[in-house]
Automatic annotation (TrEMBL):
Cellular component GO terms, alphabetical: membrane
EC number per UniProt: 2.7.11.1
Membrane topology: Single-pass type I membrane protein
Cell location: Membrane
Organism: Amborella trichopoda
Protein origin, superkingdom: Eukaryota
UniProt-recorded name of the protein: non-specific serine/threonine protein kinase
Amino acid sequence: MTATHDIQGDLRSITAGSVFNCGLFRENETAVCWGDETGSGVISLIPTNLRFRTISTSGFHVCGVLMASASRVLYWGRSLSLDKGKMDSIPTDSIISIMGGWFHSCGIRARDKSVSCWGFKLDTSTPVLANIRVLALAAGDYFTCGVLASAA
């Protein structure tokens, strides 16, 4: 049976993970998540009193671009507990947009609109192309696509 959740406050955005959802409150830009957190810890790991520009969920994790700290990325949930030998680090660059895949995420860098991806990677993963600029990203379970800035 599908559960219903009554969120107290107005949300300005919403995003769905595999078995949970998250949103950002309009008034204070903090995150709220609800649903099933079995195996991910997403709901109990929600950072409190942090404000976000945007968040994105997928699989068993949440990524958010912080309002403060020069648009740094904050990441919580299951993905970072995977085999550390097959993980790319979260970027320290300022990020303006973020998109989550199953066990990975990608973001658009503020300085040059290039793409940075991190999280679990397979041996057959295609690296991010160098010297490209994008306007938007979309992610699936094991892939991420972008709209090239030169194509717009």
